[in-house]
Amino acid sequence: MGARVAVDRTRCIGSGNCVLVAAALFDQDDTLGMVSLLPAAHRELTRQDAAAAAEAVGRCPAGALRLVTTPASSAQAT
């Protein structure tokens, strides 16, 4: 099982805690300072990125971030 990041931008208050702890995954837009996902966050997270994302989720004062478990990929016969 892996994990991905999910963001609810409607809840984001632009605190920037996510960027402070996981700069490889998160950024803030230049207009409103709301969270945006960097390319590394759009795919299944590495163990290191998952740990950083989990810390960011815990530090988000607005609850705008969450980790979503992804099923293990399996080869399918064609």
Mean pLDDT: 90
How many β-strands, per DSSP?
Answer: 4
| Rg of Cα set | 13 Å
- Give the % helix: 10-25%
% residues in beta strands: 15-25%
Secondary-structure-based class equals alpha+beta
The coarse silhouette is globular
Describe the protein.
The chain has 78 residues and is an alpha+beta fold. It is built from two helices and four strands. Strands 1-4 form a two-stranded antiparallel ribbon. Strand 2 and strand 3 (35-37) form a beta hairpin. The longest helix has 13 residues, at 47-59.
Summarize the structure.
It is built from two helices and four strands, in the order E-H-E-E-H-E.
Please give a handful of descriptors for the protein shown.
single chain; 4 strands; alpha+beta; disordered C terminus; about 80 residues; two-stranded antiparallel sheet; 2 helices
SSE topology sketch:
Blueprint: E1 2-7, H1 17-21, E2 26-28, E3 35-37, H2 47-59, E4 65-70
Antiparallel strand pairs: 1-4, 2-3
